[in-house]
Amino acid sequence: MFDDLAMMPARDMVGLFRNRKLSPVEATQAALKRIAAFDETYNAFLLTDPERALADAAAAEARWMAAKPLGAIDGVPSTIKEVVLSKHWPTRRGSLTTDADQECSVDAPCVARMREQGAVFLGKTNSPEFGWKGVTDSPLAGITRNPWNAERAAGGSSGGAAVAAALGFGALHIGNDAAGSVRIPAAFCGIFAHKPTFGQVPAYPWEARTSLAHFGPMTRTVADAALMLNVVSRPDWRDWFALPYSGEDFLHGLDDGIKGKKIAFSRTLGFAPCDPEVLALVERAVDALAGLGAIIEECDPNIGNPRQLIEDLWNTGLAYAVDGVAEDRRHLLEPGLVECASRAAGLSAVDRARAELQREEMGRTMADFHRNYDLLITPQMPLAAFEAGKLTPPGSNMDGWLDWSPYTYPFNLTHQPAASVPCGLTASGLPVAMQVVGPKYADALVLRAARAYEAVHPFAMPDAQR
């Protein structure tokens, strides 16, 4: 069924591990072989650790042979976004200002939960410096390139994870998203990503963009994302923003379909223009959902344009990050990051309080909107991937990356679950995605809608080229 073992979904791997028809060592070797063959071109990783990965895979193999797996993902090759804390490996945050010899003795909650259930971590995937922008290049790691066309951007800030997923460099990938950072690269790279309800996946340590950040799965299939969410949503005492653990099984009912569900379709969210070719593919996907029995109505949620609101909150967080860098190392920071941080200097405490009240009103508007609609669908990105190494599309006259990602950050502001669902390719062969948004806590329904579409339109993955 699969031309390459490395492209096999995690759920299928686990089934074969259980039946002793596949070894975690074989699965890990296949992923490492793909990395060795292709990552020089695409640059998905800041670091890999084949020796440790193979040792962990051998331990998983022994557990499966003894019918004593650690959990639901024991032996599955996986990756960690570089900005996320992990034992054994430094967390450089894409920056020359950080210490390569730092202590590496703590796992972030999502890493800890996956490690407890036997995940085999291959390495850490690239992110821009301090995750500050929607593309993945950094002074430390260089440019991460799109798996469909290496001259195009992978998106960010979880760009390395998206490329790793698309090219079979592991099956399960940890990303985080404070303004679009799992959904932007998922859309550009043609994979699935789910930004859970805020607090659904515990996080530690928090930083100044705390209430915007969501940690979530990046995978090649919806079922793998649901499987991974079952693991990473388990509780961790270190996160005092975390939701009470419900024990919900996100695989349960995943294939129940969306017949009778009332779905709003907004082409622009009321303020965001979209490329006609991209929009046509999203409209075709919405028609497919209607064909599956969903009740589709065209409707904008009337949230206004939150561009300035997200920028004020975002730049305040970057200012805090820059403030934590020693004075004698600040010259090593990327100039664009420093510029964004400097824009927060003129914001007062009153400005920040006003922004939070505006955000509250926006959240209330969306809560009211979802009294009438089970889900909302928008384009995920208004354009396909543009030239790698650029912050904005050449010739666009845009001020920054927030200008070309208008559909993502509204739902960080409102804490809602949202998924990037691949829905076709442009004439030039670049992926397009629709975004499926649910009310807070409706992660299972978002996943179910994404799976309903995937079942009739399976997601295509790229053919890697050296």
Describe the structure.
The protein is of the alpha/beta class and 466 residues long. It has a single domain, classed as Amidase signature (AS) enzymes (Alpha-Beta Complex), CATH 3.90.1300. The chain has 13 helices and 13 strands. It has an eleven-stranded mixed β-sheet with strand order 1-3-2-6-8-7-12-13-11-9-10, with helices on both faces. The chain is globular, with a radius of gyration of 21 Å.
Number of helices: 13
- Helix proportion range: 25-40%
Low-confidence blocks of residues: none
What CATH calls the topology is Amidase signature (AS) enzymes
| CATH homolog superfamily | Amidase signature (AS) domain
Distance between the termini: 24 Å
Number of domains: 1
Strand order, largest beta sheet: 1-3-2-6-8-7-12-13-11-9-10
* Content of β-strand: 5-15%
Task: Please tell me how large the radius of gyration is.
Answer: 21 Å
- CATH architecture level-2 label: Alpha-Beta Complex
CATH class: Alpha Beta
Q: Overall mean pLDDT score?
A: 96
Sheet bearing the most strands, described?
Answer: 11 strands, mixed
Structural class: alpha/beta
Name the shape in a single word. Answer: globular
